[in-house]
UniProtKB/TrEMBL annotation:
It is found in: Membrane. Its main location: membrane. The keyword Protease does not apply. InterPro entries: COX15/CtaA_fam, COX15/CtaA_HemeA_synthase. This is Heme A synthase. Pathway: Porphyrin-containing compound metabolism. It comes from Massilia haematophila. Keywords: Cell membrane, Disulfide bond, Heme biosynthesis, Iron, Membrane, Metal-binding, Oxidoreductase, Transmembrane, Transmembrane helix.
Length: 382
């Protein structure tokens, strides 16, 4: 790719990042570092939702090279190549609309990368001046390294032609990036205003374990959901609660869950049988029962603690909506809007489960070192 194209793409990333950076800089917030973290978490959530929209509209190969579009910085410049590809295959992977969807997704991702670099720079700068825990640069550095890995998988998603395991890992890394930002934001919140200690340490420890288990089962379910989406197995079971008129239909687990293979192919290069897609869908659908029980129990337990009640209610509400959109996606024959909402619901579950984990962790730490009837000093950003 020509250096001028890379320069134009870098400018686009800076332009996208300049908008939230300006908003944070001009805001009345005393702690702009914390505000930037939460703005980045919000934008990462948006990126995940738009990434789902990109995948669901079959726009992942709207620009079949990376990081540009036919070697250009935007689809306007690559118009001739896109028009030629669209003329050959009007409903194929490359169209003008799909090219813009894919490039907007990339521009947003580049903007978040620039924001992470800005956060890392600010962390080092403030840490050198104050040595406050709030500005420890370890997490921003980890975020920077993580987003570089995520970018590599974004490139491989295109260059390996939507290979399911690569696309699924790309999704999981996006969810992990969101979790890391939410965790960092939570740390900033609690360093600025620590929670009040509680007396029931045993109950808090058991809730801590339950919250961790909830995080694990949620990761597994998102991986299974990503596997359904990247293999286009959403309508392999087009009824609910039965699948092909049976509780346990005919399934091919061996080929369905072979990880390293081309899209729509077996590892040997043969076309994937429909029974393999049924297996992929059926496992995701039934594991949702385990997820519902574990996350529902975590939400119920959290609602029993005053300082966690709001998070517990939020987790329970998002879980119910996610169950509804999952069933509705099948029942209404995969409408795009509901499918995007289902993807957004998965990201919201990651957000709320992460919030629950960090809140329980810090609440437990404060309660263990401070008597419940003592005043907790505020660790301000002095």
């Amino acid at each position: 790719m020509h250096p001028s194209t890379l320069f134009q793409l870098a400018l686009m990333g800076l332009l996208v990042a300049s908008i939230p950076l300006t908003m944070v800089w001009l805001s009345s917030s005393v702690n702009k570092y914390r505000k930037l973290v939460w703005v980045m978490a919000f934008l990462t959530f948006d990126l995940i939702v738009f990434g789902g929209f990109t995948r669901l509209t079959d726009s992942g190969l709207g620009c079949p090279d990376w990081p540009g579009c036919y070697g250009a910085a935007n689809p306007f410049i690559a118009h001739e190549h896109i028009a030629a590809a669209e003329a050959l295959m009007p409903t194929g992977p490359v169209t003008k609309v799909k090219a813009w969807i894919e490039m907007i997704h990339r521009y947003l991702a580049m903007g978040i990368g620039v924001l992470i670099m800005a956060l890392m720079f600010q962390a080092f700068r403030q840490w050198k001046k104050t040595k406050l825990d709030a500005f420890k640069p370890a997490m921003p550095v980890a975020l920077f390294l993580f987003v570089c890995v995520q970018g590599a998988f974004g490139a491989w998603t295109v260059t390996l032609k939507l290979q399911p395991v690569i696309v699924t890992i790309h999704l999981l890394l996006g969810m992990a990036l969101l979790a890391m930002l939410v965790w960092l934001g939570g740390r900033e919140d609690y360093l600025m205003k620590p929670p009040s200690p509680v007396r029931d340490l045993a109950g808090l420890r058991s809730l801590r374990t339950l919250a961790l288990v909830a995080a694990v089962v949620l990761v597994v379910q998102i991986a299974l959901g990503g596997w359904v989406s990247t293999n286009y197995a959403t309508l392999a079971c087009d009824e609910f609660p039965l699948c092909d008129g049976k509780l346990v239909p005919e399934m091919d687990f061996e080929h369905g869950f072979t990880l390293w293979r081309e899209l729509g192919k077996t590892a040997a290069g043969h076309y994937l049988q429909f029974s393999a897609l049924v297996a992929i869908h059926w496992v995701h659908r039934n594991f949702a029962i385990i997820v519902t029980v574990v996350l529902g129990l975590a939400a119920w337990r959290a609602m029993g603690e005053a300082q966690l009640r709001k998070t517990g209610k939020m987790l329970g509400a998002v879980l119910l909506v996610q169950l509804f959109t999952g069933v509705a996606t099948v029942y209404f024959d995969f409408p795009l809007a509901i499918a995007v909402l289902h993807n957004a619901g998965a990201a919201l579950l990651v957000l709320t489960v992460t919030m629950l984990n960090y809140k329980v962790k810090y609440l437990l730490e404060v309660s263990q070192r401070t008597p419940a009837n003592a005043d907790v000093p505020v660790n301000s950003y002095r």
